[in-house]
Amino acid sequence: MKKFIFIVLLSIINFTTYSQKSNHIISGLDLNKDWFSLTNFSVLTYYTQQSQNEEQPYVFSDFEYYYDKIDKDFLNIGFTSLKLGFPKNQQSNLNNLPPSILFAFLNYSSLTEYENNNKNDFAKISSILIRQFGAPNSSVKASWGASFEWKFENAQMILNSTSNDNQIILSYLK
Q: By C-alpha distance, which of 172, 168, 117, 116 is closest to 145?
């Protein structure tokens, strides 16, 4: 009987975890906002970015204009690059165009710097994400690094640390 109750509880937890919807807000960064609200860039900037890299399905942009609305504990991690990916060929509809992708990179200059700092930085980032989204759906720890994955009904988020590239990457995909 105890096994049955445990299996039922585990199934309920698993079901509610996978059926959870994300509100697309990460530490104050509202990924429901449009191109203009997040970047404060013009249509010309979008068009220029789009034409520079025709193979990419997205226009990538920074969003420093929006930093004052993002939680300081997230920004204080010290990401070396934060980028939003907006779908291409949408320049006539930018006031209604939210990003589809967020990338946050924390690059280390050497393997030594990675080995000295990555565990602490990965723990800081993951604790922020776990406070907001709960425990990850899956995790991996290996010789190359570590990975946490959150799966939502309408999005996926991955936090990945890899010694091969001396970096931590947070990716959020709608």
A: 168
